[in-house]
Amino acid sequence: MAVMDRSYKRWDGDPMPHWQRLLVIPEHGLREVFKRKLVRFLYILSLLPSLMLLIAAFVTTHLDDLLALFPFLSELELDIGATAYHVFFRFQSFILFLLTLAGGPSLISRDLTNQALPLYLSKSLSRTDYVLGKGLVLLVLLAGASLLPLCTVYCLHWFWADSDWRSEYGWLLSSLLTSGGAKILFLTIFVLAISAYVRRARLAWVGLIGLFLLPWMCSRGFEEAARTRVAEVAAPKVLLSSIETWAFIDRQAARAISNKNPVEKAIAETHDLVESRRPAPLTMPVVFAALLGWLSAGLFAIYRKLRPVEVIG
Predict the structure, then answer these.
(1) pTM to 2 decimals?
(2) Among 66, 267, 80, 51, which Cα is nearest to 158's?
(3) What is the DSSP string of the chain?
(4) Cβ distance 303 to 192 under 8 Å?
(5) Using an 8 Å Cβ cutoff, are 107 and 195 in contact?
(6) What is the spatial distance between Cα 78 and Cα 197, in angstroms, rounded to a whole number?
(7) Which of 14, 42, 179, 222 has the fewest CB atoms in 10 Å of its CB?
């Protein structure tokens, strides 16, 4: 009677490339995240502002052609510029925060609860590969829900628009990428950090909301007491808002002289009036340096928590 040899035999086939092993983590992570009905609902909801903005951009750039079919459009007064993009960007940012709460807290905590991390690291993956794979889940999810649709709308709008609009709002794409990228990167890193330390999703929600609200409230109190805004370096909500203000309002105000849109002129003047009554704001190099410090602290917290024995092979 033949006996089958069940002893260990080394794999003699071609090994999978490292980048393919790395992409397995976000592939399964996205699959698990999109199984939740709330995530699917918020993701679809986040695409609606971009769709509305796309329709408005198409109507304004093809108004002459559409008047023959729809004469009532002659009474329509739409000017899709920096203000419109900023309004839709802020609405998507709110949905982005809800989407982060719905899909992010269990990314690492589930692996730690089930003691699956050593299994990941036994597959020729390092801690950096693991963190990068989990981070790609949120980066793809959040960028696909906000940044990518808005940038696509802008590119189509730029292609349809005339030369005057292109010269006036050619800076908008960099503003979208800067402000949106900063928010997505911050949310990704700190949701992973909170997920590594907090096992329950509801506590993770409280931790992320508290990370935004408590330092912001303390910084405003310090500003009222000491008449300085130096405490804003410890408030991530204020830092992200400062980047958004610089990316949209300040850059728009610098072009207010040549701007023909009275609404955008009024917004720039109102912003300058409000800021003149407050202490001097932080300079943008300080804001970006403080945000970089926050991101470094979040990465340090993640690596400090994920310290099992790594198996290299």
Answers:
(1) 0.85
(2) 80
(3) ------S-----SPPPPHHHHHHHHHHHHHHHHTTSHHHHHHHHHHHHHHHHHHHHHHHHHTHHHHTTT-GGGGG-----SHHHHHHHHHHHHHHHHHHHHHHSTHHHHHHHHTT-HHHHHTSS--HHHHHHHHHHHHHHHHIIIIIHHHHHHHHHHHHHS-HHHHHHSTTHHHHHHHHHHHHHHHHHHHHHHHHHH--SHHHHHHHHHHHHHHHHHHHHHHHHHHS--GGGGG-HHHHHHHHHHIIIIIHHHTTTTT---HHHHHHHHHHHHHHHTSPPPPPHHHHHHHHHHHHHHHHHHHHHH--------
(4) no
(5) yes
(6) 49
(7) 14
The crossing angle, in degrees rounded to 10, of helices 148-160 and 172-197 is: 170
pLDDT of 161-191, one tens digit each?
A: 888 888 888 888 999 999 999 999 999 999 9
Burial tier of 68 (Cβ tally within 10 Å: 0-12, 13-18, 19+): exposed
